[in-house]
Amino acid sequence: MGRALLKNIAQLDWCELTAAIECRDSGLIGLDTGELLKIQSAGVSIVESLEQLPQKIDVLIDFSTPEATLSNVRFCSDNFIPIVIGTTGFSSSDEDQLNSASKVIPICRSANYSTGVNLCFDLIERTTEVLGKDADVEIIEAHHREKVDAPSGTALAMGETIAAGLGRNLSELAEYGRVGDVGPRDKGAIGFSAIRAGNIVGEHTVMFAVDGEIIEIKHQASSREAFCSGALRAARWLIGRTPSLYSMRDVIASAERLPK
Known about the structure:
The chain starts with a helix and ends in a 7-residue tail after the last helix. The protein has a five-stranded mixed sheet. A four-stranded parallel sheet has the order 3-4-5-11, with helices on both faces. A two-stranded parallel ribbon has the order 1-2. Helix content is 35%, strand content 20%. The chain contains nine helices and eleven strands. The chain is of the alpha/beta class. It has helices spanning 2-10, 33-36, 66-79, 92-101, 115-131, 153-165, 170-173, 225-238, 248-253, and strands at residues 20-21, 46-47, 60-62, 83-85, 106-109, 136-143, 174-176, 190-196, 202-210, 213-221, 244-246.
């Protein structure tokens, strides 16, 4: 995602890359971002921490790890910088820290910044409203071999959307990776299956199965372009907002579009 964002920003006139941050042990530290993209020098070197930034930034986009994100959120809170978060895999205590920070700075946090995926959430809500109590629900997701968390944050967010529509908590309904003699399916359960293979960018399918018919809501990402454009749209939208915890669905609902 970092490289994809660099490539997208380099092609836009309305925003400017002023910093790029990598983990401390990365072999990319000190490299010019233009060299990374195999284009002419961009004049921005990759650094290992926000404290090394040469100038103030308007907004930070973070796709990293929970530990790194929380550190970056603390920096942004201290310096009143809005932050767009695409990191997943937070613990409940991490969630508390993000909620506290959102009282100081505007934060946009989503498991997925694709416009298409967020439209799928609307379809999932409507289908749950009509069929949720009668349907067997399964969520199948597939990602590249390097993804470390499972199920994906997007899959979990879809499950949470369904559970909320049923007036329940996902923790009460979720069944992960069935194996062995599991017995008949529990009524109301939300099943999760995760695939890790090759260079799959991201695929999510939500299945609502009732007697006689099946409805599938599916999103397939063919490149990271969808996530990049959404994250950049969220970053532009977030600047100047009041401190709060926003989502990509808030950005879409505003109907504000990126410049061409």
